[in-house]
């Protein structure tokens, strides 16, 4: 008898490999990098409960950074340790999403390996910024939602609630998660409506929790209401440490007005920045961004936030293929794989931001390996059977090539960066 696949074991092994990769050399450089200058001081203030800092963003990521400092000290390892954990969790979340979609190890492993080779998770897992935690909670929330979608009768509620908690933590990291929360509710309604049509039942049948092929036992309106309540409650609970600040502590009467203050700070007009870029340039990777490039720890070192060119550009083809074939063949798996990129990129088209940066494209870069794995699963057959493996080899080669300016490795001199600058628009 053939042994049954053990997805949890495979995902855990991949997660451990990812964690080891992210931790290796994470303390270099031994100084604050890029936006760490904002978030590490805020975490220090939270740990000492002195006064609020960096009040334009919620607290979750800074709480994790503070926990790292408490565990390992106020040093580079302490600042970045939980970012590495968030990165490994993101990688495992990619595996979980693909497993829930396809139920097979091969596409799940291919997508997860491509996520590891896409540079962006690696770079964000080694810096104390908000976006790594935002991505981890968002990806895991999507995975939990898909897990609830296929739950046995009686177990959907707990998995549904877990997804809501994770979305609440994502919003508690950065408000950018709010559109993803809305898209999750919309996706739930669309699937319920499609299920009613497929079963030739009246549209009102989508409201019932009975005889539902997806999220069995969850009546639509109570499920959505519970989802919102749990997510909102989780979000506000993340502000608990702010109630204990020595100076200007949070109070219940301040909590709601503070949200308006955060919104005003996030939508203010900011001055021009050297590395700013427009949202439409990000998929083309026209303007990556240096997180660090200067002498440190006895050598010239650099950290470039950039994606793997094969995945960033090839992934767009995969997204289009997934959407086209998903619609034509009514394949919900391919549609989901393509829609994840669309849903993660679309908010930046409408969000009122005076400045944009390539790293805002981080979550869409995580969706691209999912689309690639789905497209390879659909098309890499017959004579094309091993195209997915060949593609991974090419991506690995590019990862080795770019690794020195992803990992803050020692460089020959101040002009060494030019070796990796393919285009004049790259820094």
Question: What report would you give on this structure?
Answer:
- The protein is mostly helical and about 425 residues long.
- It has helices spanning about 5-25, 35-50, 60-70, 75-100, 105-115, 120-125, 130-150, 155-170, 175-200, 220-235, 250-265, 310-330, 330-345, 345-350, 360-380, 385-400, and strands at about 290-295, 300-305.
- Strands 1-2 form a two-stranded antiparallel sheet.
- β1 and β2 form a beta hairpin.
- The radius of gyration is 22 Å and the shape is globular.
- The mean pLDDT is about 90.
Number of strands: 2
- N- and C-termini, Cα separation: 56 Å
Instruction: Give helix % range.
Output: 55-70%
Q: What structural class do you assign from the helix and strand content?
A: mainly alpha
Characterize the biggest β-sheet: 2 strands, antiparallel
Strand fraction:
under 5%
Shape: globular
The low-confidence parts are none
Provide the spatial order of strands within the biggest beta sheet: 1-2
User: For the residues shown, what is the average pLDDT?
Assistant: 92
Order of helices and strands: HHHHHHHHHHHEEHHHHH
Report Rg: 22 Å
Count of discrete alpha- or pi-helical segments spanning 4 or more residues: 16
